Fold this protein.
Amino acid sequence: MAISIDKFQRLEIIERKDYCDDLWSIRVRAESKLAFKPGQYATLGVESGGRMVQRAYSIVSSPLEDDIEFFFELVPEGELTPLLFKLGTGDSLWMRRQARGLFLLDSASGHAKHLLLATVTGVAPYVSMARSIARGMAGAEAANLQIVVIQAASRSWEFAYRDELEELSRSSPWLQYVPTVSRPWEDADWKGEVGRIEDLARKYIDSLALEPANTTAYLCGHPQMIENCKGILQRRGFSKEHVREEIYWIPAKGPKTVTTSPAQSL
Ligand SMILES: Cc1cc2nc3c(=O)[nH]c(=O)nc-3n(C[C@H](O)[C@H](O)[C@H](O)COP(=O)(O)OP(=O)(O)OC[C@H]3O[C@@H](n4cnc5c(N)ncnc54)[C@H](O)[C@@H]3O)c2cc1C
């Protein structure tokens, strides 16, 4: 198969971390620097059966880092993730040379408050945003920023970036990170928030006075979570303009069933 090297460049995996059976991250080194903004995604590809299987993946790393990081969930019946899952340090894959996406922190709204909601891997663009702000990318605007990240998972070991985001929350007045677990009975040691992201969103919207006049909301990951949270925000008076979304997949129609991993079955 002839790869169009105008469109794709080769990546080398320089690190892989596994968090549980179906969640892992990789750091990759690109042949040439990828230009992107925090919140954007790259298209990754693996050659299989004489063609390139390619999908979109939010970039976890900040543009200020030398290497690029991605966070994956294995979809056992999926086409690409089982191929990606086989790759380890030293292996290579392909990436389109152009990053894409409009899921960016909205600085034009004038809103100081940003409510970032995610299921599991949907935290990826928020990590990129947080790392970038922490490294000074937001400039003077950071002085007024208030960023609240609420991340839902079934169990706490699915929060791959929890240590990093908690540490950053402790040292940064502009960041608050709230992980919530929906199956606490499977996670006896969990001491944090419990319940569905929809309930946590309502709770923090109230307690932090996240009003439509001062807040932009962001929804990333599971399509059902996005639908539910959009409804909650609309009922609270948020206009479409101030609710941004990044839907990771479209649920399959018809009788074909896809095994939803525990990580995403919220
Ligand atoms: C902008 C954007 C950014 C994304 N970023 C990430 C990311 O950072 N990390 C990440 O893991 N994924 C991300 N995704 C999803 C990713 O593009 C793939 O859809 C996903 O990895 C599944 O690919 P696959 O080829 O293995 O499955 P496919 O062959 O594409 O899908 C098989 C079936 O599984 C369903 N499906 C797909 N994903 C899931 C899922 N997670 N849980 C349950 N059912 C699913 C599909 O609807 C389909 O019916 C992103 C998607 C978009 C649009």
Observations:
- Helices lie at 81-85, 124-134, 162-171, 197-207, 223-235.
- The mean pLDDT is 93.
